[in-house]
Design brief:
By secondary structure, the protein is mainly α. The chain has 2 domains: about 50-115, no CATH class; about 150-350, MetI-like (MetI-like fold, Orthogonal Bundle). It contains 16 helices and 3 strands. It has helices spanning about 10-20, 25-40, 45, 70-80, 85-90, 100-105, 150-185, 185-200, 205-210, 220-230, 230-245, 250-255, 260-270, 275-300, 310-320, 325-350; strands at about 55-60, 65-70, 110-115. Helix 7 runs parallel beside helix 11 and helix 9 runs antiparallel to helix 10 (about 220-230). The radius of gyration is 25 Å and the shape is elongated.
């Protein structure tokens, strides 16, 4: 009698994750990126001129005096997600009741509040202009008295959003076009390949500058333009992988069972062709952050007074004689974010590509 084996086969992605964890640099880079993502998500609870939670006695016009808990910092954090925030505000009254200015009605001794670690908003101006590092302003202030630490934290939001959303757009275009070109071949492959070659002939950064000359330099436009110009590498990798996969037995079996071409492409081939594209997407996020920082440095990116790492660096450079303290934090943020995304991409390539699988373990 043949006994049935108890061992379960390990999937590709689980095996890749086990190999990835053996790389110390890869795990360190991933942990730093997780920290950046947490800072971007919880920015209103880390740097804000309103408290995370407070209890304030407040008398409404023609109404009773209330003394209840309010969560302005939590509310502002959840407002970043329109599909969650409104439902929670209507279901939980403390999130929606604070319709007054905190600083105007807060009375020490009578009321209490838990303030964020950086008690300044990125747009708040003050009389503390052009100050260096201090206990009150950890990274100093700019020429308008705005806290550099608060602006750096909210700049993390901009960089993460630009990186992930723009490469999400690029991935959607590149994966679809690459898979279609690789599977159908013939004139379809020829047309898509020629389009890819045309895009490769243009320097991407200058193409983005030319397009932004016709559109207002809003962050949404920047994300869309970067996404529409950085899909080429993803499409080439996906096309090559699908060309290999379409000759395998499971593709022939799907055809024999009557599956249509688009079902075969998007249900069977594309999920198995994601590995090399994922590496390209990771490198692309680092490139998108650099592009956004460069555009903001030149004045074509995120516009004042909204903060981004690029315009913080530009403000520090334009007034280098008086505000040199603004340059190192912005440079460090850009450098380490780009470095860590590249390290994650390099480690992914080592654990996914069978030709380099022995490295980085």
């Amino acid at each position: 009698m043949i006994e049935k084996g108890n061992e379960k086969s390990t999937g590709f992605w689980r095996t890749a994750w086990k190999r990835y964890r053996r790389s110390r640099m890869g795990m360190l880079a991933l942990a730093f990126l997780g920290l950046l993502a947490a800072i971007a998500f919880f920015a209103p609870m880390i740097a804000n001129d309103e408290p995370i939670v407070c209890r304030i006695e407040y008398t409404r016009a023609n109404g009773p005096t209330t003394n209840e808990l309010y969560f302005p910092g939590v509310k502002e954090t959840l407002r970043q997600f329109p599909w969650i925030g409104p439902a929670l505000f209507s279901a939980a009254p403390p999130f929606s009741r604070m319709d007054f200015k905190f600083k105007k009605h807060f009375k020490p001794g009578r009321d209490w509040a838990i303030m964020p670690p950086v008690p300044f908003s990125p747009l708040e101006t003050s009389g503390d202009r052009i100050q260096g590092y201090s206990g009150r302003h950890w990274l100093g202030t700019d020429e308008l008295g705005r806290d550099v630490m608060a602006r750096l934290i909210y700049g993390t939001q901009v960089s993460m959003r630009v990186g992930f959303i723009s490469m999400g757009i690029a991935a959607l275009i590149g994966l679809c076009l690459g898979a279609i070109a690789g599977y159908f071949g013939g004139w379809v492959d020829m047309i898509i390949s020629r389009v890819i070659e045309i895009f490769m002939c243009f320097p991407v950064f200058f193409l983005i500058l030319a397009v932004l000359a016709w559109f207002p330099p809003r962050i949404e436009n920047i994300m869309i333009i970067i996404g529409l110009t950085r899909w080429v590498g993803i499409a080439r990798l996906t096309r090559g992988e699908v060309l290999r996969l379409r000759e395998l037995e499971y593709t022939a079996a799907a055809r024999a069972l009557g599956a249509g071409p688009f079902r075969i492409v998007f249900r069977h081939l594309l999920p198995n062709a994601l590995a090399p594209a994922l590496v390209s997407i990771t490198f692309g996020i680092a490139g998108a952050i650099l592009v956004e920082s460069g555009l903001s440095w030149l004045g074509f990116g995120v516009q004042a007074p909204n903060p981004s790492w690029g315009n913080i660096l530009r403000d520090g450079y334009s007034l280098m004689a008086t505000t040199p303290h603004m340059i190192p934090p912005a440079c460090a943020a850009i450098f380490f974010a780009v470095l860590c995304f590249n390290l994650v991409g390099d480690t992914l390539r080592d654990v996914i590509d069978p030709r380099t699988r022995g490295r980085g373990t």
